[in-house]
Amino acid sequence: MSVHRRVFVASLGAIAAAGSAVRAQTFPSQPVHMVVPFPPGGGTDALARAIQEPMQRSLGGTIVIDNKGGGGGSIAHDFVAKQPADGHWMVVSANNLPLYPYTVAKLGFDPKTAFIPIGFIAKQESVLVGSADAPWADLKAIIAAAKAAPGSVQYGTAGLTTPMHLSAEQFAMLNGLKLTHVPFRGTGPLVTDLLGGHIKLGMSSITSVAPQIAAGKLKPYAMASLERSSVAPTIPTFKELGAGDVDGTIVYTLLAPAGTPPAVAAKLNKALNDAVSTPEGKEDLKKRGFVAMGGTPQQLGDWLKIQEPIWVPVLKAAGIKPE
Questions:
Q1: How many domains does one find in the chain?
Q2: Of 30, 154, 157, 279, which has the fewest beta carbons less than 10 angstroms from its beta carbon?
Q3: Which residues does 264 contact at the CB level (< 8 Å), separation at least 6?
Q4: Are residues 255 and 117 in the same domain?
Q5: pTM (2 decimals)?
Q6: How far apart are CA 82 and CA 136, in angstroms?
Q7: With contact defined as beta carbons under 8 Å apart, do 122 and 106 qualify?
């Protein structure tokens, strides 16, 4: 490369960096939309609303929560992937982002290239629960029923490839079971049907069902986590009950469309960390049933890369194919 060309390329880089810095200084210039992939009433929606106000204070602007349910979260991701990459659009994502190509036949975006990571928000456990009139006394009874009549035991989740769905199929794989999955358009609708007895079994985020469990309106069977939850410490884990290392820990993350200026992404990351990494933020999320996380975009990017090899074998064992 000639000296003149090197100078020209360096100048372009400097101009781009300066442009990004200017955009960061004027950002946000309009309301920032945080898109939630599920309807109101579930854990994802509750978490987004918990960080909304502290992120607004840090950004010095307005954050609007938009709920776009369906497709196990893929509809919301597809929508945000097509929005302007100026920092005014984000999506609350989770463990299943890299798995959409394995479950959605006509996916309108590439999970590996459509987004940039902003940061980790928080995590919480999943729990297997039954309706008040569920016919099984305990987890052993569920396993026995599923083995006696493969496919007869139905369970609901917030949608395809959600951490709740994946952990339920992991439970089935580890115990040689065939269960029938009933996907809902979010945890809120699932809990409504569980309370009404329209479905007898469900894998849910613990925050979405803890009040109903405490009130005796839902039966807890097992916690899908490596250790007991601080939200419901009396519920044993699948491993404690002899059903294997079933881990349905839901890790909530924040993403923005690819091409979002680095300086703007850094400002969003700072606002997120301001919301979840302070003692006040951590305590607030703890009261709501979440474990605050935070961190850098690089840490989130590295974590996303290892999710595919962990969960694709579970999808294949369950016979899940794109549809």
A1: 2
A2: 279
A3: 20, 23, 24, 27, 86, 87
A4: yes
A5: 0.84
A6: 45
A7: no
Q: Give 253's DSSP letter.
A: E
Alpha carbon distance 264, 238 (integer Å): 42
H/E stretch holding 164 reads helix 163-174
Q: In 27-94, where does DSSP find H-type helix?
A: 43-59, 74-81
* Residues 184 and 40 placed together within one structural domain of the fold: no
What are the residues facing 251 on neighbouring strands?
123
Closest CA relative to residue 224, chosen from 87, 129, 143: 129
How many Å apart are CA 249 and CA 106, to the nearest integer?
28
Residue linked to tokens 């497709």? 71
Same-domain check for residues 87 and 133: no
Residue 14 to residue 21: CA distance in whole angstroms? 11
Q: How far is CA 44 from CA 76, 89, 108, 247, in A?
A: 13, 17, 23, 18
Integer Cα distance of 246 and 165 in angstroms? 11
As a residue count, the chain comes to 323
The pLDDT tens digits along the chain (323 residues) read: 555 555 555 555 555 454 555 567 889 999 999 999 998 988 899 999 999 999 999 999 999 999 999 888 999 999 999 999 999 999 999 988 999 999 898 999 999 999 999 999 999 999 999 999 999 999 999 999 999 999 999 999 998 888 999 999 999 999 999 999 999 988 999 999 999 999 999 999 998 999 999 999 999 999 999 999 988 999 999 999 999 999 999 999 999 999 999 999 999 999 999 999 999 999 999 988 899 999 999 999 999 999 999 889 988 888 888 88
Give the residue numbers spanning the domain of 197.
Answer: 126-224
